[in-house]
Design brief:
By secondary structure, the protein is α+β, with helices and mostly antiparallel strands. The protein contains three helices and six strands, in the order E-E-E-H-H-E-E-H-E. Strands 2-3-5-4 form a four-stranded antiparallel β-sheet.
């Protein structure tokens, strides 16, 4: 079943210089375990397209059931130098929650209605 990440996770985003970060916090440990293997840097980079010009780094936070992605060179220089609408990266979390993923059937019980 294809669903958006917003059905299984919350997000928080921020920025530092030319980079932004997006933390995905999953609602259940079973979903987090699946996400560790399936929400990859390349999937995130593809979702953001030309917004992320640099490398993506991913950090796992098992105690929070969370993944944190650093989106390299995603703010067009940061601050007022940016050519994109969100120079502070505040909407990058919301944007990532719109990513559609194929969730395995055995995890359907953890989808928020």
């Amino acid at each position: 079943m294809k669903i958006k990440l917003q059905k299984i996770a919350h997000a928080r985003s921020g920025d530092k210089g030319p980079n932004s970060n997006v933390g995905l916090i999953f609602r259940h440990p079973e979903i987090y375990n699946w996400a560790q293997k399936n929400i990859t840097n390349s999937i995130v980079k593809n979702h953001f397209g030309s917004v992320v010009k640099g490398e993506i780094k991913r950090y796992e936070m098992d105690n929070l059931w969370a993944l944190n992605f650093i989106l390299g060179d995603s703010l067009g220089g940061g601050g007022s130098e940016s050519l994109i609408n969100d120079a502070q990266g505040k909407t990058h979390g919301q944007a990532l929650l719109l990513l559609e993923i194929d969730l395995p059937e055995h995890l359907y019980e953890f989808i928020d209605a």
